[in-house]
Q: What sequence folds into this?
């Protein structure tokens, strides 16, 4: 029995091309449908990521050319010292170091609210809303996060004095979770009160 | 090639040990005798001694300390041979060696090193002693502040916040643009 040699015939060639065309068409259609279904979310995520990248770059440039980080640290230290002074703990600043009758801390850029604010602002800008609504988010959200951070710093001073053994837990575990919670909460409150209120859309 | 690899490993190990060691800074406080007033002088500027958590403090007692006068006699003549630092809140800082012998010997310089243990603020004083811990003079030094930095969010905290906000974005967008049957 002679062995039949397999060859690509002229008839098989268009079939392969046809299958390839079909594959491309299906993929494009699927991607198009996916974009149709999730386009708003994907666009928002893209803007969110781009805004975080933009703010980070901006912060690096500002720190490099204007010493913004030093100003920010001093401003946070001054606010903290003022709050401690009001509470009777005798807060004072020596540069970026805050001293008081009870506890002392050095304010570095990571101690300020700048990084949570950057992420919060990116989320406010990324959410589909009008510019005046975004402006409300910025105007109310930024001071709210700064205020929560101030409460965090003041509370850590008292925790460091009264319960030094739980200072690390309060700082790393409790307050980190609370900062995340408040940042997300402020964003949700902004969406509900300033964006969704009275303008529920039905697609 | 093997030698190069060996040197690379040794270099990396040295760098891993040396870099943190180099970043640990030391604040030096010089304790001398003020020639004008013949009183103990502690060099501090600003007056409050601030030590960060990655720093150590070193009090160096100069040979001139013995010339300082107490009730008309120099400390050296009174038999000064030990100096001790007394901290009100001893749990904040580890002082070694405390007391230290005075004057300096080739084996042991007359200096006390303080390593922060915990953040906080405390008062401290320097005691000048002779045999049997007889107190000759006390120099009430100023406050000692051990400072710590408290980052708002660590890198993992920031990642968690970004992920949660991205999730909230998707959730709220989906909720806002969900199709609803008419009349509901």
A:
């Amino acid at each position: 029995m002679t062995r039949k040699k397999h060859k690509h015939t002229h008839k098989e060639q268009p079939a392969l091309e046809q299958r390839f065309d079909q594959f491309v068409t299906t993929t494009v259609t699927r991607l198009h449908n996916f974009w149709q279904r999730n386009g708003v979310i994907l666009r928002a995520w893209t803007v969110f990521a781009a805004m975080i990248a933009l703010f980070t770059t901006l912060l690096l440039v500002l720190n490099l050319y204007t010493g913004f980080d030093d100003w920010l640290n001093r401003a946070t230290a001054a606010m903290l010292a003022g709050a401690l002074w009001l509470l009777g703990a005798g807060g004072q600043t020596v540069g970026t170091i805050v001293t008081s009758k009870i506890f002392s801390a050095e304010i570095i850029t990571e101690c300020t609210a700048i990084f949570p604010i950057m992420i919060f602002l990116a989320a406010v800008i990324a959410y589909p809303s009008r510019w005046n609504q975004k402006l409300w988010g910025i105007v109310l959200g930024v001071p709210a996060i700064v205020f929560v951070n101030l409460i965090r710093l003041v509370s850590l001073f008292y925790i460091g004095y009264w319960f030094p053994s739980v200072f690390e837990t309060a700082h790393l575990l409790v307050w980190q979770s609370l900062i995340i919670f408040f940042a997300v909460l402020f964003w949700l409150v902004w969406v509900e009160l300033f964006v969704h209120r009275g303008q529920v859309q039905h697609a | 090639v093997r030698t190069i690899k060996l040197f690379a490993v040794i270099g990396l190990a040295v760098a891993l040990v040396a870099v943190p060691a180099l970043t640990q800074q030391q604040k030096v406080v010089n304790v001398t005798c003020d020639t004008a007033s013949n009183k103990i002088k502690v060099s501090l500027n600003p007056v409050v001694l601030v030590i960060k958590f990655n720093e150590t403090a070193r009090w160096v007692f100069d040979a001139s300390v013995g010339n300082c006068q107490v009730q008309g006699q120099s400390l050296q003549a009174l038999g000064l041979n030990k100096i001790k630092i007394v901290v009100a809140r001893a749990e904040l800082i580890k002082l070694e060696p405390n007391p230290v012998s005075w004057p300096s010997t080739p084996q042991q310089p007359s200096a006390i090193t303080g390593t922060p243990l915990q953040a906080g603020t405390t008062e401290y004083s320097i005691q000048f002693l002779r045999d049997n811990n007889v107190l000759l003079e006390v120099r009430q030094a100023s406050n000692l502040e051990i400072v710590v930095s408290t980052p708002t969010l660590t890198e993992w905290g920031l990642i968690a916040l970004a992920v949660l906000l991205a999730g909230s974005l998707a959730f709220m967008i989906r909720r806002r643009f969900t199709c609803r049957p008419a009349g509901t």
